[in-house]
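Posting for a labmate who doesn't have an account.
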Amino acid sequence: MFKGILIEKDEAGYRTALRDIDEAGLPDGDVTVQVQYSTLNYKDALAITGKSPVVRRFPMVPGIDLVGTVEESRHPGYRAGDIVVLNGWGVGEVHWGGLAEKARLNGDWLVPLPTSFTPSQAMAIGTAGYTAMLCVMALERNGVTPDQGDILVTGAGGGVGSVAVALLSKLGYRVIATTGRMEEEPYLRQLGAAEVLSRDEFSAPGKPLAKERWAGAVDVVGSHVLANVCASMKYGGTVAACGLAGGMDLPASVAPFILRGVTLAGVDSVMCPRPRRLEAWQRLGRDLDIDKLGLIAHEIGLSEAIELAPAILAGKLRGRVIVDIGR
């Protein structure tokens, strides 16, 4: 038996509880991991609360991130004692995830823990930080450089936004952060933001084209915010879009794309191919100021994760939440 958060759904309803789980119930996989840390992400909070149909198989252990030690392996790339990281691949949605003491996984989904990070630091980064790095890489692939002008980061107080601000500022970009919690301005400036704007400037319906302001942008919000960001991009600018915290819709026009040559670059972290994952983690080791992880993340115990999930959905928590599975 091992402890974990288990989500069940049947005639009695949707239930989430911390309980003892029989190891015989672990799903198929060629690597069994003793989990040390996981995280609490927006998607995990949706799964735990049942606010959105994130979970597609029941029962389910949530947790889209994990880091831990290989206990058993039939995969040629891993041996007992190796420390591995997992992000995405439908874990916590269709395959049991990281919010439990054990996980059994497909070894092809794993990457070795980068030597730059401790297990706790790797989860301070987690899917959110790795997604932020993929967004930075998307801007770079489209030729966005620091000399071209300001970079906008929406939802900057969250996990993706916080790491994106820290990464971009260290790489020499002038970063403008937006947030719905202006009391977080000192925090965002500590991460490297040159200016902090209220989300209210972007959340109402806007014009098809607005004044050119941004050379690039990282958007985690979607909906009217993303539409207004696209409308205010400089000629040839790029928006890396990776989230939908404000909605899945995009009430925009084609004007920014056909009149200003703007690129809307979609960024997916869940099914991202392994070579790009490895590149993103390597870049994080080089381009992220590890000292800032202390600002971005805070740690809770596994027993606290269910209680904190609604606060994640309400946007009340700053940065990243690390879950210590051992407490």
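Reply:
Got it, the structure tokens are right above this. The domain at 2-113+290-324 is CATH 3.90.180.10 (Quinone Oxidoreductase; Chain A, domain 1).
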